[in-house]
Amino acid sequence: MKNYFGDSGRYDDIIGLPHHVSPTRPRMPTRDRAAQFAPFAALTGYGDAVKETARITEERREPDGEQTETLNRTVKILAEKIREQPEITVVFFCPDNRKEGGSYRQFRGNLRRIDECRRRMIFTDGNEISFDNIREIRYDSEE
Can you list the residues of the chain whose pLDDT is less than 50? Predict the structure, then answer.
């Protein structure tokens, strides 16, 4: 018999023995034997880190002078109609908590109050949007 261990043949007495089969325990299926190693992950969190890096964010675009004027005019009109709780659509920038940038979102709701001290629009459902993040306000007046 060929010696695979490179020494004096100290395992020659057991190398040719048949594989042990337990008389009391059933043989574990190959699928289950492989599954016992599945929970091991050498790089825990690596997949999440890759996904986070790949996630795309946008840069905040500051409104130009004309857009700022339009926003100010619209806010003034809405302030005059605040008792009616007008339904408006606001496009605003939402900063990302994990990385630089964020995303632009759209919110539609009934305006309850304009808080000029805190520079916020407050809606009937409790949502608040900062003036600094507003990019566009859409209001369909019936006039």
Answer: 1, 143
Residue 143, pLDDT score: 44
How many angstroms separate the CA atoms of 102 and 58, rounded? Answer: 5
Give the chain as a 3 state SS string.
Answer: CCCCCCCCCCCCCCCCCCCCCCCCCCCCCHHHHHHCCCCCCCCCCHHHHHHHHHCCCECCCCCCHHHHHHHHHHHHHHHHCHHHCCEEEEEEEEECCCCCCEEEEEEEEEEEEEECCCCEEEECCCCEEEHHHEEEEECCCCC
